[in-house]
Amino acid sequence: MILKGKRGIISGALDESSIAWKVAERCHEEGAEFTLTNAPMAMRMGKINELGEKCDAEVIGADLTSIEEIENLYEKSLSKMNGKIDFIL
Known about the structure:
It is built from four helices and four strands; from the N terminus they run E-H-E-H-H-E-H-E. With 89 residues, the protein is of the alpha/beta class. The radius of gyration is 12 Å and the shape is globular.
């Protein structure tokens, strides 16, 4: 439980073959809390919602080329994490 109490945002988990997917699973196993994000199109094509359920993580769609969507992602993540983010992947 090396990550117990740590909070973060993990981007890019599409399916079980994604590095971000494996990192999210491991972070969850080690006690971290996090939100998951990906571009809306990737979310429709992938299985990120399944990972969210498995890891008890909120999934927040965000196109990371849009400042507004990045701000929304951070605001929602900070709200869920009680104002603290320790890591971003």
